[in-house]
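Intended use. Records like the one below are meant for learning the mapping from a protein sequence to its folded structure. Do not use them to infer anything beyond what is encoded.
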Amino acid sequence: MTYLKSHLCSFSITNCRAFYKKFYKSIGFLFFFFSFSATSATENQIQLIQQAAEEYILATIEWPSGGTLEATAASIDSRIFATDCPTSLTSSSSSINPNASNITVLVECSEENWHVYVPVRLTRTGPQVVLVTPLSRGQIISAQDVTINMVDLQRFRRQGFSTIDAVIGAKTKKNLHSGDIIEARDICVVCRNETVTIKAVNSGMTITTKGIALTDGSHGEHIRVKNSKSNRIIEGRVTGISEVTVVF
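Structure written out for the chain above:
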């Protein structure tokens, strides 16, 4: 090496400078490579980070009633800086929207002063009422017409029904096909211009009378009805098939 440097430097000053420039650049690259390798995350560290992010989602996000919730952490670049954390990793997120498809989770080790942002994909499934036979507009839904299927709630974001009892006796507002998920807008639990039962509730006492629905309504919706005896128009909440409850 000494001979080579002397030979090049004796040849010209330009060659001498070029040699040292390449020599120190090579040394710098080696230092960078070994330093980078020493601080890059191991496969086990990456798995622990992903696991921490997934467990945070499963523990924080509300599970769909009667359904399932899956959390899948995205791949993490192994070139990130991470070390073995002497204590448990901590996780947090600025967003915990249960309807989101993806949530970013911050996983950190405060003792070792490092953190990683991990995108986590959510998959939510839940029971929904589905037709097994086609129905025409105006038909009454019976128990033989429907079943319960588990549905990807990330794709189905409209208001459906999770129990069969919620749709039995309801009337269809349009033609429906076999395999369709029944939506609230597809049926009327209480239908306009039809006779309904009005339940007036006050301090534990219930009075029942008949009335006429002035609008369509689904479970939980507030609609206007006319008392058939007094002709008084009141507002009540749909609580069942052809049933409206008014609380005084």
